[in-house]
Structure formats: C-alpha cells, structure tokens
C-alpha cells in the first residue's frame, strides 16, 4: 500500500473524521512561501547597507532562525493534533516503512483514558486495566506514561469520592498499587523507577491518603417518599439479583433487607453464577456437597474462583482491527481500508490489551 505523503519514509497524512467521511487534515495559516518572501525581503534590506557586513550576517542568521522556528511550530502543531486521535497503530517489529515498535506506554497515552472514565460503560474497563498495570507492568511504562497513569488515577479517585459509586473497585486498585510501590521502593528502588525516588515516596503517601478517604467514605441514606426496592414484588426482586455477575454485589444487596437476604441464598442463583463464570468440567474437579447431599453452589463458586479466572463483562471495550492492526475505541472509529470493517473487529479485554505489547 503506497503512503499518502510527500516523503515515503513518513507515516502519512493526518486524517480527521467528518460527517462526510474521513478527510485529510490540512494546516491553515501562513504558507512557507510567505515566510520565504519575508526572509528574502529582509535579506535585501540588509544587502542595501553594504557598509556594515556584520549586519548582513546577523540578518542571515535571523532569517534561518525564523525558518527553523516555523518548522518547529508546524511540527508541534501536527503532533498535538495527531495525539488527539483516539487510536494507535500496534507495531511489534520494524518494517521498511515503519521503524521501531509500539509500547504499552505509548498506547496508554494515545487512547484517551482520561475521557473514558467519564463514560459509565468504560469505567470498570479502565479500572481493571489500571489494576493489571499496577500489578506487573508499572515499571515498563515510560516517564510520561507513568505521569499520565497517576493523573488518570487521581481523576478516578475524585470521581468516586464525588459520585460515591464503585468504591470497592478503587479500593482493590489502590491496595494492589500501594503493595507494588512498597516493594519497588524498598527492595528495587532506583534501578527501575523513573525519576527521583522521593517522587515515588510522595506518590505512595498520596495513595495511602486516598485509601484512608475511601475507607472513611460515608454514603448518606437516600430519603425518598416514592417506591423503594422492598416495595417491588418478590419475583421482580429475584430477577434483579439474577442480573448480577459479581458475587460481592449479591452478598451486599442481600444485607439490605431480610427478604433480599433470603433471595440471595437461593441455590439456583449461585448455580447460574457458577455456570456463567466457569465450565462444567471445572465443576467436576471441585464438587462440594452440603450436609443434605446437595451441591453447595455458593461454596463451589468461591472455591472455583481461587483456581480459575472469572468471565469479564464490560459495557464497552477497546477494539482491535485485524486488517489495519489499529487499536481504538469503537465509537471513535479509525481510518480502515477493509471492504467490511465490522468483520475485522475484535474486542480487547484488559489482559489482552497488555498482552498486545509484550515482546
């Protein structure tokens, strides 16, 4: 595929998505020709004063400097616009057209996770990704990516403290991150951490402070004169419990009222939960019977989760185009050249996202 650029070594033009489709982005402003004319005029004015040769040299240097500043500003503007695109080409090796490869830190900076956490469909996805990075990939991030990581984390914590939603997810994330940083600071330290060790000590203190704030979080009781969850018919309350895919949510909801507690202990509910997360072959290896000789599905669930990963479920995820090798958010799109782009898309789980950048 030929490159649509002035230089075959360049990565191509920058494109912007419009209502009429993808169009090439062009920079508006003064052309290089105008700068050249100004430089020529400046040089002519200097040449008129032939008595002062030194002034001519100064004007020539000034003209070259203006050209250099123009190209630098143009490059910065292009890079700033390019990084606003919410997709990234995943390259694992050097080719004739592209040199180098894509890293986890570059992908984390480019895919705009700061805006993703504001979307309720993507919130759990981003939190899970940050948790996996905290466990094993924090030291593989570049300095800029690590700074971006903590900026996103700070926004997540502030959002949870303001909205008072999903505090348990963030507590697990902060606990894993504080454990990792404690080990790195005490045992490894300067050899793998980017920046001054005192910066990481301050970050650890900030994380511990966030944990304290979340532990002290008091969710006020909702005062409502309308219908409550307890006012719903029994079968509707039962249907709500069957919609949960997290055992902790079922247990917490069961503590609200005696009726919900009775429904949360239903054997069929825990059987459905086991069947959703685990395969039948795994049931046979860890079969647990109650005193009455029946299968204890609740105990089986908590036993199976120690040995096997649970099925992950997210409202929205990143997608990978197998035709273009591009990672992107689905609603943002990407400049795909396939005849049927939908058949080339593959949802990317948080663990798969990290695996894409392992070499």
From TrEMBL:
Which subcellular locations apply to this protein?
A: Nucleus
Q: Does the keyword Nucleus apply?
A: yes
UniProt keyword list:
Nucleus, Ubl conjugation pathway
Q: Which GO terms describe its cellular component?
A: cytoplasm; nucleus; SCF ubiquitin ligase complex
Its primary localisation, in coarse terms, equals: nucleus
Question: In which pathway does this enzyme or protein participate?
Answer: Protein modification; protein ubiquitination
- CDD domains, per the entry: F-box_FBXO25
Does the keyword ATP-binding belong to this entry?
no
Give the UniProt record's GO annotations in the biological process aspect.
Answer: protein ubiquitination
Q: Tell me the function of this protein.
A: Substrate-recognition component of the SCF (SKP1-CUL1-F-box protein)-type E3 ubiquitin ligase complex. May play a role in accumulation of expanded polyglutamine (polyQ) protein huntingtin (HTT).
Q: Which PANTHER family match?
A: F-BOX ONLY PROTEIN 25 (PTHR13123:SF8), LD30288P (PTHR13123)
Protein name stated in the entry: F-box only protein 25
């Amino acid at each position: 595929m030929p490159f649509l650029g002035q230089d075959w070594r360049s990565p191509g033009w920058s494109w912007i998505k419009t209502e009429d489709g993808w169009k090439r982005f062009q920079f508006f402003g003064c052309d290089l020709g105008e700068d050249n004319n100004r430089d020529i005029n400046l040089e002519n004015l200097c040449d008129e004063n032939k008595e002062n040769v030194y002034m001519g040299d100064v004007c020539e240097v000034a003209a070259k400097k203006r050209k250099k500043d123009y190209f630098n500003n143009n490059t910065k503007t292009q890079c700033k616009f390019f990084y606003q695109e919410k997709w990234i080409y995943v390259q694992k090796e050097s080719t004739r057209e592209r040199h180098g490869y894509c890293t986890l830190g570059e992908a984390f900076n480019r895919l705009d996770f700061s805006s993703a956490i504001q979307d309720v469909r993507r919130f759990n996805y981003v939190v899970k990704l940050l948790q996996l990075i905290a466990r094993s990939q924090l030291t593989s991030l570049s300095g800029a990516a690590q700074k971006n990581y903590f900026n996103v984390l700070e926004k997540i914590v502030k959002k949870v403290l303001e909205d008072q939603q999903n505090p348990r997810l963030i507590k697990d994330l902060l606990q894993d991150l504080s454990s990792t940083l404690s080990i790195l600071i005490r045992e490894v330290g300067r050899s793998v951490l980017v920046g001054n060790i005192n910066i990481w000590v301050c970050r650890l203190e900030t994380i511990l402070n966030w944990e304290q704030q979340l532990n002290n979080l008091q969710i006020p009781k909702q005062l409502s004169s309308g219908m409550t969850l307890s006012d719903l018919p029994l079968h509707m309350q039962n249907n709500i419990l069957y919609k949960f895919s997290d055992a902790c949510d079922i247990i917490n909801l069961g503590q609200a009222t005696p009726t919900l507690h009775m429904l949360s202990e239903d054997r069929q509910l825990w059987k459905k939960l086991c069947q959703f997360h685990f395969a039948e072959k795994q049931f046979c290896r860890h079969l647990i019977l109650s005193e009455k000789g029946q299968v204890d599905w609740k105990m089986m669930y908590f036993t199976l989760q120690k040995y096997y990963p649970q099925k992950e479920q997210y409202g929205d995820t990143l997608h990978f185009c197998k035709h273009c090798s591009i990672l992107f958010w689905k609603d943002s799109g990407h400049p795909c050249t396939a005849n049927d782009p939908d058949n080339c898309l593959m949802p990317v789980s948080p663990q798969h996202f990290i695996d894409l950048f392992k070499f």
